Protein backbone atom coordinates (compact mmCIF):
# COMPACT_ATOMS: atom_id res chain seq x y z
CA UNK A 1 0.00 0.00 0.00
CA UNK A 2 1.31 3.46 -0.92
CA UNK A 3 2.02 5.50 2.24
CA UNK A 4 -0.02 8.69 2.63
CA UNK A 5 2.90 10.35 4.44
CA UNK A 6 6.53 9.70 3.56
CA UNK A 7 9.54 10.39 5.75
CA UNK A 8 13.18 10.96 4.83
CA UNK A 9 16.12 12.04 7.01
CA UNK A 10 19.15 13.98 5.83
CA UNK A 11 21.53 16.33 7.67
CA UNK A 12 19.33 16.25 10.81
CA UNK A 13 16.38 17.42 8.69
CA UNK A 14 13.32 15.19 8.65
CA UNK A 15 11.27 15.77 5.52
CA UNK A 16 7.60 14.87 5.85
CA UNK A 17 5.79 14.69 2.51
CA UNK A 18 2.01 14.63 2.26
CA UNK A 19 1.38 11.85 -0.25
CA UNK A 20 -2.23 11.83 -1.42
CA UNK A 21 -1.53 13.43 -4.81
CA UNK A 22 -4.77 12.18 -6.41
CA UNK A 23 -6.67 14.05 -3.66
CA UNK A 24 -4.31 17.06 -3.91
CA UNK A 25 -2.93 16.01 -0.51
CA UNK A 26 -6.20 16.87 1.22
CA UNK A 27 -6.39 15.72 4.82
CA UNK A 28 -8.61 12.81 5.66
CA UNK A 29 -8.75 11.39 9.18
CA UNK A 30 -5.90 8.97 8.43
CA UNK A 31 -3.56 11.73 7.26
CA UNK A 32 -4.42 13.92 10.26
CA UNK A 33 -3.42 11.03 12.48
CA UNK A 34 -0.22 10.16 10.61
CA UNK A 35 1.11 13.73 10.52
CA UNK A 36 0.26 14.21 14.20
CA UNK A 37 2.24 11.10 15.11
CA UNK A 38 5.10 12.11 12.81
CA UNK A 39 5.43 15.55 14.40
CA UNK A 40 5.40 14.09 17.88
CA UNK A 41 7.97 11.51 16.86
CA UNK A 42 10.24 14.15 15.35
CA UNK A 43 9.97 16.28 18.50
CA UNK A 44 11.15 13.32 20.61
CA UNK A 45 13.90 12.14 18.21
CA UNK A 46 17.34 13.51 19.21
CA UNK A 47 18.57 12.93 15.66
CA UNK A 48 16.09 15.47 14.24
CA UNK A 49 16.89 19.17 14.41
CA UNK A 50 14.35 20.52 11.93
CA UNK A 51 11.19 19.25 10.24
CA UNK A 52 10.54 20.17 6.61
CA UNK A 53 6.94 19.75 5.47
CA UNK A 54 5.99 19.57 1.78
CA UNK A 55 3.59 17.81 -0.59
CA UNK A 56 3.79 15.39 -3.51
CA UNK A 57 2.44 16.03 -6.98
CA UNK A 58 1.04 19.37 -8.09
CA UNK A 59 -0.43 20.41 -4.74
CA UNK A 60 0.99 21.21 -1.35
CA UNK A 61 -2.28 20.60 0.47
CA UNK A 62 -5.92 21.11 -0.50
CA UNK A 63 -7.02 21.35 3.13
CA UNK A 64 -9.71 19.09 4.53
CA UNK A 65 -11.05 16.32 2.31
CA UNK A 66 -14.50 17.71 1.48
CA UNK A 67 -15.96 14.30 0.70
CA UNK A 68 -15.08 13.22 4.20
CA UNK A 69 -16.34 16.53 5.65
CA UNK A 70 -19.67 15.88 3.94
CA UNK A 71 -19.80 12.39 5.42
CA UNK A 72 -18.94 13.77 8.85
CA UNK A 73 -21.79 16.31 8.55
CA UNK A 74 -24.42 13.88 7.31
CA UNK A 75 -23.52 10.34 8.46
CA UNK A 76 -24.32 9.58 12.13
CA UNK A 77 -22.09 6.50 11.90
CA UNK A 78 -19.00 8.43 10.76
CA UNK A 79 -15.96 7.26 12.74
CA UNK A 80 -13.34 9.98 13.36
CA UNK A 81 -9.63 9.27 13.64
CA UNK A 82 -7.66 9.01 16.84
CA UNK A 83 -6.29 12.57 16.69
CA UNK A 84 -8.18 14.29 13.87
CA UNK A 85 -7.89 17.92 12.91
CA UNK A 86 -7.74 19.21 16.47
CA UNK A 87 -5.02 16.74 17.41
CA UNK A 88 -2.91 17.85 14.46
CA UNK A 89 -3.27 21.52 15.42
CA UNK A 90 -2.29 20.58 18.98
CA UNK A 91 0.83 18.92 17.59
CA UNK A 92 1.70 21.94 15.45
CA UNK A 93 1.18 24.34 18.35
CA UNK A 94 3.28 22.18 20.67
CA UNK A 95 6.08 21.36 18.19
CA UNK A 96 9.19 22.78 19.84
CA UNK A 97 11.72 22.43 17.02
CA UNK A 98 11.97 24.60 13.88
CA UNK A 99 9.33 23.86 11.25
CA UNK A 100 10.08 24.73 7.62
CA UNK A 101 7.32 24.50 5.01
CA UNK A 102 7.98 24.15 1.28
CA UNK A 103 4.67 24.81 -0.49
CA UNK A 104 5.22 23.09 -3.82
CA UNK A 105 1.77 23.83 -5.25
CA UNK A 106 -1.68 24.97 -4.29
CA UNK A 107 -2.43 25.46 -0.61
CA UNK A 108 -6.08 25.61 0.44
CA UNK A 109 -7.46 25.86 3.97
CA UNK A 110 -4.98 24.06 6.20
CA UNK A 111 -2.60 24.21 3.22
CA UNK A 112 -2.49 27.95 3.93
CA UNK A 113 -3.18 28.19 7.66
CA UNK A 114 -0.33 25.79 8.51
CA UNK A 115 1.97 28.61 7.39
CA UNK A 116 1.01 30.41 10.59
CA UNK A 117 2.88 27.69 12.51
CA UNK A 118 5.92 27.64 10.20
CA UNK A 119 9.17 29.21 11.31
CA UNK A 120 10.20 29.54 7.66
CA UNK A 121 7.93 29.11 4.65
CA UNK A 122 9.07 28.84 1.06
CA UNK A 123 6.82 28.53 -1.97
CA UNK A 124 7.11 27.54 -5.59
CA UNK A 125 6.36 30.29 -8.09
CA UNK A 126 3.55 27.98 -9.24
CA UNK A 127 1.97 27.83 -5.77
CA UNK A 128 -1.23 29.68 -4.99
CA UNK A 129 -3.20 29.93 -1.80
CA UNK A 130 -6.77 30.28 -0.61
CA UNK A 131 -8.75 30.32 2.65
CA UNK A 132 -12.09 28.79 1.58
CA UNK A 133 -13.94 29.12 4.87
CA UNK A 134 -16.64 31.61 3.85
CA UNK A 135 -17.19 29.71 0.60
CA UNK A 136 -17.87 26.62 2.71
CA UNK A 137 -20.13 28.39 5.19
CA UNK A 138 -17.80 27.74 8.12
CA UNK A 139 -15.45 29.65 10.45
CA UNK A 140 -11.64 30.04 10.35
CA UNK A 141 -9.45 27.28 11.71
CA UNK A 142 -6.03 26.59 13.21
CA UNK A 143 -5.85 29.95 15.05
CA UNK A 144 -5.74 31.66 11.64
CA UNK A 145 -8.00 34.45 12.91
CA UNK A 146 -5.09 35.42 15.18
CA UNK A 147 -1.99 34.14 13.38
CA UNK A 148 -2.77 35.60 9.95
CA UNK A 149 -3.28 39.20 11.19
CA UNK A 150 -0.10 38.75 13.26
CA UNK A 151 1.79 37.50 10.20
CA UNK A 152 0.46 39.60 7.31
CA UNK A 153 -1.45 42.49 8.91
CA UNK A 154 -5.16 42.94 9.56
CA UNK A 155 -6.28 43.99 6.09
CA UNK A 156 -4.37 41.29 4.22
CA UNK A 157 -5.73 38.75 6.69
CA UNK A 158 -9.25 40.14 6.33
CA UNK A 159 -9.06 39.73 2.55
CA UNK A 160 -7.77 36.16 2.85
CA UNK A 161 -10.34 35.10 5.44
CA UNK A 162 -13.39 37.01 4.17
CA UNK A 163 -13.09 36.73 0.40
CA UNK A 164 -12.12 33.06 -0.09
CA UNK A 165 -10.22 34.29 -3.19
CA UNK A 166 -6.93 32.92 -4.52
CA UNK A 167 -3.61 34.71 -4.08
CA UNK A 168 -0.42 33.99 -6.01
CA UNK A 169 2.91 32.96 -4.55
CA UNK A 170 4.21 36.46 -5.24
CA UNK A 171 1.27 38.05 -3.42
CA UNK A 172 1.90 35.66 -0.52
CA UNK A 173 5.53 36.78 -0.45
CA UNK A 174 4.66 40.46 -0.69
CA UNK A 175 2.32 40.29 2.29
CA UNK A 176 4.74 38.21 4.37
CA UNK A 177 2.90 34.89 4.27
CA UNK A 178 5.97 33.16 2.79
CA UNK A 179 9.62 34.07 3.26
CA UNK A 180 10.98 33.11 -0.16
CA UNK A 181 9.61 32.20 -3.59
CA UNK A 182 11.58 29.84 -5.82
CA UNK A 183 11.22 28.30 -9.29
CA UNK A 184 9.63 24.84 -8.92
CA UNK A 185 12.86 23.04 -9.77
CA UNK A 186 14.77 24.97 -7.08
CA UNK A 187 12.24 24.85 -4.24
CA UNK A 188 13.24 21.67 -2.43
CA UNK A 189 16.95 22.36 -2.82
CA UNK A 190 16.55 25.79 -1.27
CA UNK A 191 14.29 24.49 1.49
CA UNK A 192 16.67 21.64 2.31
CA UNK A 193 19.64 24.01 2.35
CA UNK A 194 17.99 26.46 4.73
CA UNK A 195 16.67 23.66 6.93
CA UNK A 196 20.11 22.01 7.10
CA UNK A 197 21.75 25.32 8.02
CA UNK A 198 19.39 25.63 10.98
CA UNK A 199 19.63 21.94 11.91
CA UNK A 200 23.42 22.22 12.21
CA UNK A 201 22.96 24.41 15.30
CA UNK A 202 22.54 22.81 18.76
CA UNK A 203 19.01 21.56 19.36
CA UNK A 204 18.96 23.12 22.82
CA UNK A 205 19.53 26.57 21.31
CA UNK A 206 16.98 25.99 18.55
CA UNK A 207 14.38 25.03 21.12
CA UNK A 208 15.26 28.06 23.25
CA UNK A 209 14.90 30.45 20.31
CA UNK A 210 11.56 28.96 19.29
CA UNK A 211 10.25 28.88 22.87
CA UNK A 212 11.09 32.53 23.47
CA UNK A 213 9.59 33.62 20.15
CA UNK A 214 6.38 31.66 20.64
CA UNK A 215 5.85 32.30 24.36
CA UNK A 216 4.06 35.66 23.90
CA UNK A 217 1.70 34.07 21.34
CA UNK A 218 0.69 30.87 23.13
CA UNK A 219 -2.23 32.22 25.14
CA UNK A 220 -3.57 34.14 22.13
CA UNK A 221 -3.29 31.06 19.90
CA UNK A 222 -5.19 28.98 22.46
CA UNK A 223 -7.89 31.64 22.85
CA UNK A 224 -8.28 32.02 19.08
CA UNK A 225 -8.60 28.25 18.65
CA UNK A 226 -11.29 28.11 21.33
CA UNK A 227 -13.29 30.86 19.63
CA UNK A 228 -12.86 29.31 16.18
CA UNK A 229 -13.76 25.80 17.35
CA UNK A 230 -16.98 27.08 18.90
CA UNK A 231 -17.94 28.96 15.75
CA UNK A 232 -16.93 26.04 13.51
CA UNK A 233 -18.99 23.57 15.54
CA UNK A 234 -21.99 25.88 15.30
CA UNK A 235 -21.68 26.32 11.54
CA UNK A 236 -20.72 22.74 10.56
CA UNK A 237 -23.87 21.14 9.18
CA UNK A 238 -25.67 24.50 8.92
CA UNK A 239 -27.76 25.33 5.86
CA UNK A 240 -24.89 27.31 4.32
CA UNK A 241 -22.34 24.58 4.98
CA UNK A 242 -24.57 21.83 3.58
CA UNK A 243 -25.33 23.95 0.50
CA UNK A 244 -21.58 24.43 -0.06
CA UNK A 245 -20.80 20.73 0.36
CA UNK A 246 -23.75 19.64 -1.77
CA UNK A 247 -22.72 22.08 -4.50
CA UNK A 248 -19.17 20.67 -4.37
CA UNK A 249 -20.51 17.12 -4.71
CA UNK A 250 -22.73 18.19 -7.62
CA UNK A 251 -19.99 20.16 -9.38
CA UNK A 252 -21.72 23.55 -9.21
CA UNK A 253 -21.31 26.87 -7.43
CA UNK A 254 -23.17 27.22 -4.12
CA UNK A 255 -26.17 29.56 -4.01
CA UNK A 256 -26.07 31.20 -0.58
CA UNK A 257 -28.41 34.01 -1.67
CA UNK A 258 -31.28 31.52 -1.84
CA UNK A 259 -30.85 30.68 1.84
CA UNK A 260 -32.77 32.61 4.52
CA UNK A 261 -30.82 35.76 5.40
CA UNK A 262 -28.21 34.94 2.74
CA UNK A 263 -27.05 31.91 4.70
Automatic annotation (TrEMBL):
Transmembrane segments: none annotated. Signal peptide: none annotated. Keywords: Isomerase, Peroxisome. Its main location: other. It comes from the Bacteria. SUPFAM superfamilies: ClpP/crotonase. InterPro entries: ClpP/crotonase-like_dom_sf, ECH/Chromodomain_protein, Enoyl-CoA_hydra/iso. One of its GO terms (molecular function) is delta(3)-delta(2)-enoyl-CoA isomerase activity. It is found in: Peroxisome. This is Enoyl-CoA hydratase/isomerase family protein. It comes from Saccharopolyspora montiporae. The lineage of its organism: Bacteria, Bacillati, Actinomycetota, Actinomycetes, Pseudonocardiales.
Amino acid sequence: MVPILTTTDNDRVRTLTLNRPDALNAFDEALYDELTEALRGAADDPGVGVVLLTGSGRAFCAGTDLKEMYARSTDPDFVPGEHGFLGLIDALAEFDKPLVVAANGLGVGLGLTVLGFADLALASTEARFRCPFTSLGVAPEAASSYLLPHLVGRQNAAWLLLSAEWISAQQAHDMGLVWQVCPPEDLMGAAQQHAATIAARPTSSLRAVKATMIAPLRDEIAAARERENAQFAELLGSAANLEALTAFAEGREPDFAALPGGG
